[in-house]
Amino acid sequence: MEDFLELTVSAMASGCIYGLMALAYLIVLRPTSIINFAVGEWAATGAFVGVGMLSTLAWPHLEGPYILAVVAVIVVLGLLGWAVERLTVRPLVRRGAAVTSPILALLGVLVIFRESLTLIYGADPLPSPPPFGFKRIEIGIFAGASQQFFIIAVTLSLFVLVWLFFERTVWGRAFEAVALNRRAAALMGINLGRVTALAFAGGASVAGLAGLLMSPMTSAHYMMGLPLAIQGFTALVIGGVGRVEGALLGGLILAFVEQLGARYLPIPSGLTLAFPFALLILFLLLRPTGLLAPREAR
Amino acid sequence: MARTRFASALTLATGLLACTAAAYAQDVIKIGVVTDKVGSGKFYAEPVTRGIELGAKMINEKGGVLGKKIQLIIEDDQNKPDVSAAKARKLVDDGVLVIMSNTGSPATQQAQTVSLETKTPHLTPANSADTLTTQLNNPWFFQTGPLASIQLATLMTYTKARGFKKVAIVRDNSALSQSFAESFRKGLDGVGIETAVEEVIPQGATSAVANLQKVRAAKVDAILQAGILGPEMLQFFRAYQQLGMKEPILGSYNLSIPAYLTMAKDLMEGVVFVDAYDETKPEAKAFRDIYFKEYKEEPSSLPAYGWDGIHLVAQAIEKAGSLDKEKIRAALASTTGFVGAIGAKGSSWGFRNGGRSGFDPQGAVVRIIKNNQHGPVVHSGQK
Predict the structure, then answer these.
(1) Nearest-by-Cβ selection for B206 from A14, A124, A223
(2) Does B183 map to a domain?
(3) Which residues span the domain enclosing B247?
């Protein structure tokens, strides 16, 4: 039982990271119909920006205020996401390019981000300090590392905020309107360009935050993006592309399957690598809309 | 007429230039180095390369080899086997006499296809996979890194007194880590120690808690850490600490890579690992002083591999007495009793009985990590 409770905290923390990655996909995908595989590199960039902020000249021993790193990641990644939309996606859409063109262009962006990270920060993994240390703490019957509890708390708070944004604000409604019918939304006076730019900025900020939260567990390294992109995409497919809460649900399911499978299934642990892909195929075949279907127009 | 004169002058100038270039080419001895500047092996390949550069500089300051200066031509293979072979080919085309490979064993394995085909002496000073000299019958290839089997045997000798009966192996899913684990498994079988569980932390995993719970449930006497990839091994140490585990951790020479001490700061206290470097050995002390003077920092064992490697190559060329590749190969193959900065006190490199793996079976040492530093040698050799 002790194992199960420890594993629950570990899987919830991993699931929250996957959920954030799925949310980064969803924020871009809903209003634009563009699957942006560069979210993984945005996460890696977020980790490096955060670590960079914590280890600037003023704080050579990684003791900078953590909140500054969080703000820096949200702002810098937001600007990068906005710039990517302006420089790659918008020109293609304006020229009437095929729907797959922005997706391919964003794959190019992925490579540019990754190689830029190695040029700026080098190939060595960088240590990333957890804000509350990494000691084991016990809350009731659950036990885990303080960073895992921190990831869970931040992720749940962020999901509530994003849910409120989509459900309770005019801008959120504008996103939803564009997602439901782009042309009708434009006819009603919604600025499609602004919504798209905001979607890229928001998606990049969320992915960057996921990378920053993840980095104390794995260090900040330039190869961290691709696995996160795969896990986030799988979580998105499981939860469904239509609902914010679906992203979190998909992330949690994926992480629990991965970690409970690794612990209790009588298979070599190397095979757990196949779990995300197996789930991806399963859901695409049996329930392509994901577990949570999109809401109907209200 | 004027045009003819101009053509003659041009021909003469070109001829002179070619002669000068040829003369210059004869004045230097080109040694090719395959390193990893951006890939997953950078953090161990680059320090080894630095040792080669320092060694070449010192050799040149003392007059070079056969009266000629060593010129290093360094290529980046990103630790990718296919790229490694292409870069080795490029080095041969550039006219190198010897290739030195510093990246991962799988990349070096692939680069061997080029040294075999082009009959170019090829040395890896730090690679440890046992299979490098057994999978391919390549008489041009030599290895001086501590074989994984020697590392394990040294560890087992050290731990014999502790009476370990069953252990766990934890690794990542890289080819090199797999190769290490396999050597460890065979070695453990050989001495009658049971491998109760072998756990793989795959690249990109976000937690190693499940893996280490299985290790904990197996109630092993010790954990053999055969991982290579930094982020995945960081997860291992994080989960070990999180689960409050106390089983002793025994690691390969990969844990001598200084980057781990920074990445997993405060997580590796008491970890036992194999190394091939004893700071109190006179040759290691001499190397340390030169390195410190040059770079103003303490060296780890990694640059010492490169330092010894380039000195071994220089010695072989000197012994061959010519720039003929076959003579250099023969000189390398006849090496015995080479004492460098690497290796336990009293050990030496040598290719005995026609073998091409030159690390002394008594050359590995055991060290313990203390206060985020590689501690002193606590055991040496297999006796």
Answers:
(1) A14
(2) yes
(3) 149-275
